[in-house]
């Protein structure tokens, strides 16, 4: 099957996920399951994994679970029924995903996790995640400097079921809380959502008009917060995000959002496919199950080098 045909198969799978299709078996197919591609981070993961799989000679089944653990379980059933050779997964909950990964393992299908860990070891073959704590400390240090070590600020938290949300918040606070003149006046989840972050930011501004800065658990929420701040005429507020999206890059270059932290979504997904390929061919990835990839601070100095969750030299 040529490259165009393989990518068409992937595109058709994405289009059909809402219908819970019954896929025909494919001899050498890798399933790629992520949250919604409405978030460019997750789309970059799926695109990176699919491109590497095609390069290595596999067909792909690209599926979206929308952070719904029940839907994720059904997608695992579809992938298992189709006889896929491996599953690349950005999961829908650290606890809720353990059963799905175990189900695949029991069927002889190895899983390779990216971005988010699960709460069990020895079930997935690989768990490749960004060093969220290290990245959050980078973001926290930049936020402190931008705030001049003083002022009232708000925090937008990610989805509670996602371990990354807590790790990032802890990393931020292990830095920011060292500065007594920085005062947290509002903290609320926006569930990784741009729309929800817009609404939350509006409420925060009404309750605390003195807010000087906002630190966000991801770029999607940062963009929602920035839109609300612009609408309120508060472009003086300092906003720092996390992910390294093109949208935030563009905002930084226009003087809007001040900084973000890049986690290499595209490269991480490609690494997972390479490890899946090695495991299928040799029975081993040659590396430990749990692997960390360091993050990079993105600000006005290097934003122009950022493209699709990757930093050029």
Walkthrough of the structure:
The chain is of the alpha/beta class and 313 residues long. It folds into 2 domains: 29-129 and 265-292, Response regulator (Rossmann fold, 3-Layer(aba) Sandwich), CATH 3.40.50; 132-262, 3-Layer(aba) Sandwich (Rossmann fold), CATH 3.40.50. The protein has 10 helices and 12 strands. A 6-stranded parallel sheet has the order 2-1-3-4-5-11, sandwiched between helices. It has a 4-stranded parallel sheet with strand order 7-6-8-9, with helices on both faces. Helix 1 packs antiparallel against helix 2 (40-55), helix 3 (69-82) runs parallel beside helix 4 and helix 7 packs across helix 8 (219-231). The chain is elongated. The two termini are 34 Å apart. Residues 3-26 have low confidence and may be disordered. Belongs to the bacterial solute-binding protein 2 family. GO terms for molecular function: carbohydrate binding. One of its GO terms (cellular component) is cell envelope. Keywords: Signal. Pfam families: Peripla_BP_4.
Report the helical percentage: 40-55%
Report the CATH superfamily of the largest domain: Response regulator
Main beta sheet, described?
A: 6 strands, parallel
Q: How many strand segments?
A: 12
Shape: elongated
Total number of domains = 2
Low-confidence stretches: 3-26
Just give the CATH class of the largest domain. Answer: Alpha Beta
Protein name: Erythritol-binding protein
Family: Belongs to the bacterial solute-binding protein 2 family.
Organism: Rhodobacter aestuarii
InterPro entries: Peripla_BP_I, SBP_2_dom
């Amino acid at each position: 099957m040529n490259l165009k045909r393989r990518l068409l198969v992937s595109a058709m799978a994405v289009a059909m996920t809402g219908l819970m299709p019954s896929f025909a078996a494919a001899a050498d197919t890798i399933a790629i399951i992520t949250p919604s591609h409405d978030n460019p981070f997750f789309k970059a993961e799926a695109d990176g994994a699919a491109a590497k799989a095609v390069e290595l000679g596999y067909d792909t089944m690209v599926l979206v679970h929308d952070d719904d653990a029940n839907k994720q379980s059904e997608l695992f059933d579809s992938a298992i029924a189709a006889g896929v050779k491996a599953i690349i997964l950005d999961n829908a909950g650290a606890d809720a995903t353990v059963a799905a990964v175990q189900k695949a393992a029991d069927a002889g299908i190895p899983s390779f996790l990216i971005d988010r860990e699960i709460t069990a070891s020895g079930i997935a073959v690989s768990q490749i995640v960004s060093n969220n704590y290290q990245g959050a400390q980078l973001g926290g240090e930049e936020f402190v400097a931008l705030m001049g070590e003083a002022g009232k600020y708000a925090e937008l938290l990610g989805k509670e079921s996602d371990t990354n949300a807590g790790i990032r918040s802890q990393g931020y606070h292990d830095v920011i809380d060292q500065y007594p003149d920085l005062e947290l006046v509002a903290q609320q989840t926006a569930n990784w959502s741009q729309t929800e972050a817009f609404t939350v930011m509006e409420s925060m501004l009404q309750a605390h008009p003195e807010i000087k800065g906002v630190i966000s658990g991801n770029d999607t929420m940062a963009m929602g917060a920035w839109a609300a701040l612009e609408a309120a005429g508060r472009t003086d507020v300092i906003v720092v995000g996390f992910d390294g999206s093109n949208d935030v890059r563009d905002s930084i270059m226009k003087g809007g959002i001040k900084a973000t932290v890049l986690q290499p979504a595209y490269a991480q997904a490609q690494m997972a496919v390479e490890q899946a390929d090695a495991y299928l061919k040799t029975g081993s990835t040659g590396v430990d199950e749990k692997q960390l990839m360091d993050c990079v601070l993105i600000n006005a100095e290097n934003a122009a080098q950022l493209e699709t969750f990757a930093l050029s030299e």
